[in-house]
Amino acid sequence: MNTHPLQDQLRRPIHDLRISVTDRCNFRCSYCMPKEIFGEDYAFLPASELLTFDEICRLTRLFVSLGVSKIRLTGGEPLMRRHLPELVTKISAIPGVEDMGLTTNGVLLGGQAAPLYAAGLRRLNVSLDALEPELFGRMNGRGFRPGMILEAIDQAAAAGFEVKVNMVVQRGVNESEILPMAAYFKKRKITLRFIEFMDVGNDNGWSYDKVVTKQEILQQLQSVYTLEALEQNYSGEVAQRYGYLGSPAQVGFITSVSESFCSTCSRARLSSDGKLYTCLFASKGFDLRIMLRGGAGDEELLAAIKQVWEQRSDRYSDERTEETHRSKAKIGMSYIGG
Ligand SMILES: Nc1nc2c(ncn2[C@@H]2O[C@H](COP(=O)(O)OP(=O)(O)OP(=O)(O)O)[C@@H](O)[C@H]2O)c(=O)[nH]1
Ligand SMILES: C[S@@+](CC[C@H](N)C(=O)[O-])C[C@H]1O[C@@H](n2cnc3c(N)ncnc32)[C@H](O)[C@@H]1O
Ligand code: SF4
Ligand code: SF4
């Protein structure tokens, strides 16, 4: 327990560390890694620039000593990082890590769920934007069909994972999938979370009119179901959750655009090459890898991390306007860690 909890300029503590384990992905979702930018000749990070598992664990231990207790492994597509279960085992063994989750597109989950479970992972968030095969294939930019992902979700749930599903909703693209997705996952008692389309990176074609807001989605759901708002599981929870009357199933909304949640944001992000970011919409990170590889001691690293957090005043979503969206240079989400 820290006697002087670390706080940023807006008195927000540090609680979560979102670790990107790779900048690569087997999908090309247009809202995240549009094909036109992430083409055949795109220069992804070479392996030598990625933090090693030992480097990630060393930093994780330091973050934990500053107040972090929740870890999320993400990317890019985290299941593309080789030997990921080894990292899960190592992070699970760090005293003070109370919760760890993984966010994945699920394509490689079928083959990896068992070793990940054996390594200690219990929570999976699987992203899926549509059940309709053609539409899903277009949205992921690579023609993948949803069938294998749906099977992997069922298997993971049966194996004991707590599984949630993330769906990014874009106007004119997949609103027609809101009710079919809700019915499908309600039946399986798997929480489906609708994510408002965000203006991450600089090239994802975002505009306000393409955002389908929580209120609009809720209205669609309420035309069929009776829903009741649920209490937050913990302060700073990203999703607002609702329960279906008469069922243990839940839905959630991640409302970065219509109801931003920066005032309770306690999330730090570590990119796969070791840069520390204090906001999903950041333009610049702090290079921890150069310190790690330059022989910095733990005290030096701790002092640097503390300083970055103490100086933090990010609240991009609170301040979002057409103008900030256009004028701010932002790092891509697949790199920074979604
Ligand atoms: N704007 C914004 N979006 C976030 C933030 N944290 C997570 N998200 C978005 O929320 C969506 C779901 O993220 P997940 O990776 O599933 O993580 P989570 O919802 O925090 O996970 P749980 O611990 O299961 O609640 C993704 O689109 C993230 O990019 C944040 O701090 N700001
Ligand atoms: C960047 S991905 C990384 C993990 C993994 N590849 C996946 O898709 O689950 C993390 C999450 O960010 C979401 N995401 C990506 N771009 C987004 C955007 N522009 N707006 C809202 N959510 C987005 C994805 O749907 C996914 O749930
Ligand atoms: S959202 Fe995830 S699956 Fe889609 S391109 Fe981004 S990193 Fe890949
Ligand atoms: S926009 Fe930035 S500060 Fe606001 S909740 Fe997201 S990551 Fe946190």
From TrEMBL:
**Residue sites binding [4Fe-4S] cluster 2 per the record:** 262, 265, 279
Regions crossing the membrane: none
Give residues annotated as binding S-adenosyl-L-methionine. Answer: 31, 76, 127, 198
Q: Report the pathway entry.
A: Cofactor biosynthesis; molybdopterin biosynthesis
Cofactor(s) for this protein? Answer: [4Fe-4S] cluster
Keywords of the record, alphabetical order, are:
4Fe-4S, GTP-binding, Iron, Iron-sulfur, Lyase, Metal-binding, Molybdenum cofactor biosynthesis, Nucleotide-binding, S-adenosyl-L-methionine
The Radical SAM core domain covers 9-228
The record ties this protein, via Pfam families, to: Mob_synth_C, Radical_SAM
EC numbers for this chain: 4.1.99.22
Q: How is the cofactor bound?
A: Binds 2 [4Fe-4S] clusters. Binds 1 [4Fe-4S] cluster coordinated with 3 cysteines and an exchangeable S-adenosyl-L-methionine and 1 [4Fe-4S] cluster coordinated with 3 cysteines and the GTP-derived substrate.
Annotated Basic and acidic residues bias: 316-326
MF terms in GO: GTP 3',8'-cyclase activity
- Record-annotated residues binding GTP? 18, 72, 103, 164, 267-269
**Where does the chain bind [4Fe-4S] cluster 1?**
25, 29, 32
What catalytic activity does the UniProt entry give for this protein? GTP + AH2 + S-adenosyl-L-methionine = (8S)-3',8-cyclo-7,8-dihydroguanosine 5'-triphosphate + 5'-deoxyadenosine + L-methionine + A + H(+)
Positions of region (Disordered): 316-338
What protein family is recorded?
A: Belongs to the radical SAM superfamily. MoaA family.
This molecule's function is given as: Catalyzes the cyclization of GTP to (8S)-3',8-cyclo-7,8-dihydroguanosine 5'-triphosphate.
Annotated HAMAP family: MoaA_B
Task: Provide the protein name.
Answer: GTP 3',8-cyclase
Q: Which organism is it from?
A: Paenibacillus rhizoplanae
